Amino acid sequence: MTAELINWILGGLSIGSALMVVFSKHPIRSVLYLIVTFFLVSGLYIMMNAQFLAIVNIIVYAGAIMVLFLFVLMLLNLNKATEPKTPLLVMLSSVGAAGIFVLVLIAALKDSFIQKSGQVAGNLNAGMVENLGELLFKKYIVPFEISSILFIASMVGAVLLAKREKPIID
Amino acid sequence: MDTALLIEKLVLVVLLFLVSLGIAAYSTYFERKLAAWIQDRVGPDRAGPFGILQPIADGVKMFMKEDFTPKNADRWLFILGPGIAMFTALITSSIVPWGTDLYLFGRTIVLQVADFNIGILFVFGTISIGVYGIMIGGWASNNKYSLYGAIRASSQMISYELAMGISAITIIMMSGSLGLTDIVKSQHGMNWNIFYQPVCFLVFFICALAETNRAPFDLPECESELIGGYHTEYSSMKLGLFLFAEYVSMFVSSAIISILFFGGYNFPGMDHFSGNTLALLSVLVFFAKIFFFIFVIMWIRWTIPRFRFDQLMHLGWKVLIPIAIINLMLTGIVIAFHEGWFLN
Q: Is residue A48 part of a domain?
């Protein structure tokens, strides 16, 4: 009962702060609300007994990626005067695209709600480090390694792009 | 959840809070005395015998000063910054195992607030959030020097977190668990990790200095270039919280270093004791180790000059991370050899 109540509170708060990300006027405020959202989502992970996922979510997203976001926004020093004007057509089309995205999400998730009650009871400790490790390094080893190669490729690509401005001397 | 457990943990939390603040307060006194000793001066000696009341005088002074908020500052974030810095510094100590079990009133009392399944990762989580205190405070001040301090802090933290994480993974591989209790128990007696992983310790220690913004890595507040860095615009107890958070995190990181590499509360010959005597002795030994590391960190501050920012980045990315990765690979190979992977 208490757990369900906490779940509802966390869910409500995370939707609220996610909405604040969109509605905040100031980009820095938006990023800060996004960080709050990550924390609340981590709280939901903990309620699902997935401590590892919760802390990795905080370390990677809230702790590293969002710091970089904040870093770039602070350097850009965005304000009303420098903000580029968005044409009406672009605004309309982005609203349309977002609407289609929501539609796809609802279509994808509508069945999962029905199955939920039966599946969660399956393995309560699935989110613990040991079980997650077993799963990642045994059953899903190939996709895991391929995704890490993908990350290395993107890192090398980023370094290559950053270094390109230097004149190449043969 | 029974009431006795709740009371027990509550007492532990309050005690831990007071001890952290007390040690942080007296670290400031100790640091000034040490600096004076290294530079052949007298140091604070007016308030009380040997200046022992100096931290209290400092605290009162901090509260009495005018609390000034700059006109163009973001008011709420300006208040939030020091709060986050202090919060993240304090919360890390909740996971530290302070000693072996105590036996009081017929109950076994575990001297640790919470033993999470994720253990050491929790420490990394709080470290990675800790940078927000400085970033938000620095940005909200609306001052270019504060902003420079904030930007330096964030890039420094992200760079050194990587090498720190990789060296911690080496220790996790050695003990086979993420939990700090298991890491400490695997170093029973004199079986400390420092004897197996000296390189790893060096990398971790340097990164810990950088993460707590201590000299020679105190670039974010570098007074000769940035006036006061991220806390230029802060005054009164808000400034006090920033400065205090640094000392609290110094205390906690000393504790983490002792746990990972110097056996935590373990000491040679601990098998001869048992029960409450062992618990008391282990706590004392642990605090002795912590004080030693606090001393070493201060000693480094008054000995080595500050890095230049490009040197800092060079050290982080091109020296520490490769060393940590090579060390990790070698450890992996040795462990695999021990487990008998290469024998058939």
A: yes
What's this model's pTM, rounded to 2 decimal places?
A: 0.83
For A2-11, write each residue's pLDDT tens digit. 778 888 888 8
Residues of B in contact with A49 (CB under 8 A): none
**Strand runs labelled E in chain B:** 102-104, 107-109
**Domain that includes residue A51, residue range:** 2-79+120-163
Interface contact B121, partner A, CB < 8 A: yes
* DSSP conformation class of A64: I
User: Do B145 and B232 meet the contact criterion of CB atoms below 8 Å apart?
Assistant: yes
Number of domains in chain B: 1
Average pLDDT in the A144-154 region? Answer: 91
Partner residue opposite B128 with nearest CB, options A28, A64, A128: A64
Report the residue from B121, B150, B155 with minimal CB separation from A55. B121
Question: What does the alpha-carbon distance between residue B218 and residue B209 come to, in Å, rounded to a whole number?
Answer: 9
Look up the CATH number of the domain holding residue A139. 1.20.120.1200
Question: Is the residue at B20 inside a domain?
Answer: no
User: How far away is chain B from the Cα of A170, in angstroms, using its nearest Cα?
Assistant: 25
- In chain A, residues with a C-beta closer than 8 Å to the C-beta of B151 are 71, 74-75
Q: What is the ipTM score, two decimals? A: 0.79
